[in-house]
Structure formats: structure tokens, C-alpha cells
Amino acid sequence: MTATHQTITTPDGDFTAYVARPVAPSAPAIVVIQEIFGVNGVMRDIADGLAAQGFVAIVPDLFWRIEPGIQLTDKSEAEWKRAFELFNAFDVDTGVADIAATIAQIRQAPGVNGKVGCVGYCLGGLLAYLTAARTDVDASVGYYGVGLDKHLAAAADIHHPLLLHVAELDGFCPPAAREAIVAGLTGRPNVELLIYPGRDHAFARVGGEHYDAADAARADAATLALFRKALV
Questions:
Q1: 136 is catalytic
Q2: pLDDT value of position 114
């Protein structure tokens, strides 16, 4: 596995992305969509893990319009405060446009077989859902996405596989919102929901307060199975 950085070009300007490449000369690509903490060690580790599984993994810096190069952790009150400031300043629509630009560029990159998936966490979970609806991505996965209940109509535009990991006790997704998401998306073509009883937000974030190794492993195995089926 090798790690580099790549420049993504958009009509509004350029931004950088972390790229982890497997040993294989040709592989599918996966866009890893950040949490509210930026392209930090957690996101890079996820990309490295996907590269070890045989995928080209790319993590675009989606906060670049606010402040490029954000790298926060979940370990201090000051970092949480800054993360929520960034979240509140972030424009979801331009974020999806930046993801679309990343997909288009990595799809044509040397060493990529033309197939591209995406996986997102927290804020990235919402963005993965919207990416499934608004772009030509070949497969999408969202972990404990925040705010999906406000975008349920977008499900009509999802034409490739989408897997959503839903935490039953997600502190950032009130019960009414979660119930709306489950009711609105269950049975939709191309959409699969996996519910994790007793789990809170970010149960798959290694080292996080709500991390659960067993359910994180279950979710990651399902994610990998989807990508292997849809992209390889």
C-alpha cells in the first residue's frame, strides 16, 4: 500500500485529497467521506484499510471552502466546538458537488478499473446518501448519517446499491427522525438498512466513546461485501 495526495479540480477552485493505493495494478476506487473532524487520522486509517483490501481509497478535503487541511479529533471540548462550527458552516450541496468531482477524477485515474463507490460517516453518512441520489457512483454506504430524514424524497433517484448502517440509539438522530428514515427507506429499490440495537452514534469510530468492536466489525464486513459485489 502507498499513500499520496491528489489535487481535485472544480470550477470553484482546487482542493486536495488523501489517496491510499493497493499493490494491485488495477482496482476499483472508493471515496471516503469525512466526519465533522476533517481528513484526520481516523479517515486516513479507513482509507489505508480499504487499500489493504484491494481498493484505491480517496478522502477529499470537503471543508476546503471554509478552511483547508482541517484535522481534528474527538478528544477535547475545543475540538468538538470547532467541529460543530465547521458543520454549521458547511454547505451540503457544494459538498456533494465536490464529491462528484472527486468521483469523476478518480474514475479516470491510472490504476482504477472505472468503478467507484463511496462510504461516509456521520456528516459523511448523509453525503453518501445524497451522492447515491445525485451522482453516477456505482455503490454507496452510509454510517449513522445525520439529517437523512430531511432528504427522503431523494431516494427516488437512487439507481445503484446503497447500504445504510443505522444506530438505534443515535444521539444525533432523534427517535422520530430515525423512525421516519426507516419508514421512508425500507423496501426502496437499491436501498438496504442495517439496524444496530443499543448502539449510539459513531459506534464504528475506533477509539471513540461509543465504539463497539463487534458491531463495527459486522458493519464493516457488510460494507466490504457490498463493494466486492458491486465494484470488483
A1: no
A2: 97
